[in-house]
Design goal:
Elements: H1 7-11, E1 12-15, E2 18-21, E3 24-30, H2 33-45, E4 51-57, H3 68-73, E5 81-82, H4 90-108, E6 112-116, H5 120-131, E7 136-139, H6 151-162, E8 165-168, H7 171-179, E9 186-188, H8 192-207, E10 221-225, H9 229-232, H10 235-246, E11 251-255, H11 258-266, E12 277-280, H12 285-294, E13 297-300, H13 303-312, E14 316-318, H14 326-330, E15 334-336, H15 341-353, H16 356-359, H17 371-379
Parallel strand pairs: 3-4, 3-6, 4-5, 6-7, 7-8, 8-9, 10-11, 10-13, 11-12, 13-14, 14-15
Antiparallel strand pairs: 1-2
The structure holds uridine-diphosphate-N-acetylglucosamine.
Length: 382
């Protein structure tokens, strides 16, 4: 594990010709795709702060199209260190992150540690820092789906109960924490992903991704992702779902997560035999946002994409029995179908027929733009 830049260089940074002396260090721990999207607006806000953000990439996601491309597109500074932890069991990933982050805390003595979301990277980082009494800040706190069969739900609960500052994306998240007895350090700030989403709206238009390369037409395809452990642990059902959506009259475009690909291939299922289903490699953030803008509807088990569909005004079919983003269901823009083929087909047919105006309003449940700015001000890091 090598430190990439020296401490002195790190403390003195020239930003747009101006030398800024960074007096204190804050760790920002990322490792998987959703973290990069949440961290981007925070890092941008911190550019002129006298606090130096030291980015630790755990390496939980390591493929170029799962990591590097996100840094490039989101204009994120290169991580100060990459721990190279990679794939493995839950215990392996979590404990490896803990051990390595602990070493870095001893070395750099950060003022605070910021973690994002609900992954094993988040859990390992939060446990390491809170056990060393370093103020631990959880971005996207209070989010619950109330089903511990999702490993992320276990992570969310533990992270919130060991963190000192619980930065909530919604009012429901604040209420969830209250029900668990957590009120100290709880703040409704809004969703950091919304800032990245708004930025991507502007840039993805300029990038002009060509739908033709995927053989899909504007407003005539379903954009789908599937990667949850609960989904990939059932390759037989997953294969049946793919066969079924592959036979629908509307095309589905599915950028496939490596976990999903591996699950199907390891069980001997071919991924080539689906008629109206186009399976492609994972796409970059901007390309995803562009596909989202152009699709008819979304079908996913990704929490992030559920919210992005809501912001974009695209109906969403969620392939889970629970969601952390219950507000999108209440507003009528999202429907829970689990891995049930009949429910999936019914939901697709309902949404395809519907006029979007019939669905109704999309209240700003996840706050207004500028969550990262409000957060930095709240922490006094300006
Ligand atoms: C993780 C998070 C999940 C988040 C998701 C975003 C946990 C428990 N889960 O799930 O909350 O929504 O990231 O994608 O932390 N793999 C590659 N290349 C990569 C990354 C992963 O091939 O760059 C494959 C490996 O086979 C790996 C598998 O995907 O074993 C699963 O990766 P992992 O990081 O364990 O979990 P995700 O499914 O990505």
């Amino acid at each position: 594990m090598g430190i990439l830049i020296s401490y002195e260089i790190m403390r003195r940074r020239k930003i747009k010709g101006k030398e800024i002396v960074k007096k204190k260090i804050i760790f920002s721990i990322v490792g998987a795709r959703p973290h990069f999207v949440k961290a981007a607006p925070f890092l941008e806000e911190m550019e002129y702060s006298t606090y130096q953000v030291f980015t630790i990439h755990t390496g939980q996601h390591y493929d170029k199209n799962m990591s590097d491309i996100f840094f490039k597109e989101l204009n994120l500074p290169k991580p100060d260190i990459n721990l190279g932890i990679g794939s493995g069991t839950h215990a392996f990933q979590t404990s490896a992150v803990m051990q390595k982050v602990e070493e870095l805390i001893f070395e750099y003595k950060p003022e605070a540690v910021v973690v994002y979301g609900d992954t094993n990277t988040t859990l390992g980082g939060a446990l390491a820092s809170s056990k060393l009494y370093v103020p631990t800040i959880h971005i996207e706190a209070g989010v619950r789906c109330f089903n511990q069969k999702y490993p992320e739900e276990i992570n969310r609960k533990i992270i919130d109960h060991v963190s000192n500052f619980l930065i909530c994306p919604s009012k429901i998240a604040v209420d969830n924490l209250k029900k668990e007895g957590l009120t100290n350090g709880v703040e409704f700030i809004g969703d950091f992903m919304y800032d990245s989403f708004l930025k991507a709206q502007k840039i993805s238009d300029l990038c002009k991704f060509d739908l033709k390369k995927y053989g899909v037409k504007q407003d005539e395809f379903i954009l789908s992702t599937m990667h949850r452990e609960k989904t990939t642990n059932s390759p037989k059902i997953l294969n049946e779902i793919l066969c079924s959506i592959g036979n629908l009259p509307i095309t589905t475009l599915l950028p496939m997560h490596p976990r999903t690909m591996a699950s199907l291939q390891n069980s001997g299922y071919s991924i080539k035999n689906f008629k109206n289903l186009k399976i492609i490699n994972p796409v970059s953030y901007l390309e995803m946002m562009s596909l989202l803008k152009n699709c008819k509807l979304v079908m996913t088990d990704s929490g992030g994409l559920e919210k992005e569909a809501y912001w974009q005004g695209k109906p969403c079919i969620t392939l889970m029995e629970e969601t952390t983003w219950i507000e999108t269901i209440d507003a009528g823009w999202n429907v829970l179908v689990g891995l049930n083929i009949i429910k999936i087909e019914k939901a697709i047919s309902n949404f395809v027929k519907k006029d979007l105006e019939e669905i109704g309003a999309r209240p700003a449940y996840y706050g207004s733009a500028g969550a990262a700015k409000r957060f930095v001000k709240y922490m006094g890091w300006t």
